[in-house]
Write a structure and sequence with these properties.
Elements: H1 6-16, E1 26-28, E2 37-41, H2 51-60, H3 64-67, E3 71-74, H4 78-90, E4 94-99, H5 104-112, E5 116-120, H6 125-136, E6 139-140, H7 147-163, E7 169-173, H8 178-190, E8 195-201, H9 206-213, H10 221-224, H11 238-247, E9 250-254, H12 256-270, H13 276-287, E10 295-299, H14 306-314
Parallel strand pairs: 2-10, 3-4, 3-6, 4-5, 7-8, 7-10, 8-9
Antiparallel strand pairs: 1-2
Length: 315
Amino acid sequence: MHVVTVDDIRAAAERIRGSVVRTPLIPAPWGDPERPLFLKPENLQAIGAFKVRGAFNAISHLDPAVRARGVVAYSSGNHAQAVAYAAATFGVAASIVMPEETPTVKVDATRSHGAEVVLCAAGQREKVAADVVARTGGVLIPPFDHPDVIAGQGTIGLEIVEDLPDVATVIVPVSGGGLASGIGTAVKALAPGARMIGVEPELAADTAASLAAGRRVDWSIEDRNRTIADGLRSQPSELTFTHLQRVLDDLITVSENDIRAAVREIALRAHLVAEPSGATALAAYRSRDTPPGPTVIVLSGGNVEPALLAEILAS
């Protein structure tokens, strides 16, 4: 097992420089004065989510001859778009396996980058992706279970500490765990006094259960699919869980109503579009008294179905 280091993340930052947006740290004066609030808006990436960082790092790190065979990915949406976008940039073929329940906006966006999309039943992504690898000869770029993907996501942590050296708390959504693993590794190395807090929906709180048990605890896909936060329905791998155990100081779970309220607040107060998964960090900030001091919430993505966004804003 390769545990990612801050040096891996620095190398990733060099590889992806110029290929991804260095998102700003936006002060939110409407936050709690005791916990000054800053937003890291990864919804401003070209594909609308942070996943582009890990995808570009992993694909750029491949040997050119291997990369030329094409790439394969499985994802509920944002990683799918990221791999499709990065593959198109490198001029290689991409085949993406997506669950049938994936929001249409994410399927259409993935196809718009020229990728082949293969739809599959719930819980079958990995199996179908293995079949696609065998058929195409492409290289699998997993959504989180890979050191290069984790290191790419960790570049967000580098940017946070560069822009806010006295950061006290960083709140990050947790699904498969690649984002929190990477950001946490960078933040703990460069701002060791800062607290790393993960956040999950109550309806997909497998990581919270796993951290409490000291081992990975399985939740059924049917249980995890209940949450509106469709990007947070995956479970950590052995690799990411090892990282999460090292870097997370706490994990907060939030209700579906908390998530909807956070989507609405981000739209009306920050004038940004957040998908439910991307809004969970604000939901955690609002639902729990986190430590005092400058607080960064990672708005991980903004790919939300227009009809769902309209429903949330009208409620």
